[in-house]
Amino acid sequence: MSSSTEAAGECGKTAWPEVVGLSIEEAKKVILKDKPDADIVVLPIGAPVTKDFRPNRVRIFVDTVAETPHQKLAIARYQLTMSSEDGAGGKRSWPEVVGMTIDEAKEVILKDMPDAEIEVLVVGTPVTRDFRPNRVRIFVDTVKSTPAVG
């Protein structure tokens, strides 16, 4: 391979503004078409990141709620043993926030459940099955900003 070809390969596409607004899966397809060796990392907007540079890493930041956030009861026995003072009578899902941004969804959830501990996760992230009465998980999946190499 000539040095000019090597240089062109190293200087390939480094940003994908055209994927903003797409789902994670759609964005990954576009990026991998242009950069087949990309190590794609999907993170919610505001997630902490390292400042090191990796030429194959492409970070995709997402922020739109993809699923109904809910306070999931992992094991049936919790449903049987919870008393009304444990939160059995409170709101446990928020279908109205699907399509909102993370901040908008948090605001709605905190109005109904001021003590909620809200976790923002990317769709498909593995989660524990333990039950915490104040935990509400928000799953996000729409690209918010231009993915770029680094």
UniProtKB/TrEMBL annotation:
Gene3D superfamilies in the cross-refs: Trypsin Inhibitor V, subunit A
InterPro entries in alphabetical order: Prot_inh_pot1 (IPR000864), Prot_inh_pot1_sf (IPR036354)
Key word Transferase present: no
Keyword terms of this UniProt record: Protease inhibitor, Serine protease inhibitor
Top-rank taxon, per record: Eukaryota
UniProt keyword Hydrolase present: no
Recorded coiled-coil stretches: none
GO molecular-function terms, A-Z: serine-type endopeptidase inhibitor activity
Pfam families: potato_inhibit
GO annotation terms (biological process): response to wounding
Family: Belongs to the protease inhibitor I13 (potato type I serine protease inhibitor) family.
UniProt-recorded name of the protein: Subtilisin-chymotrypsin inhibitor-2A
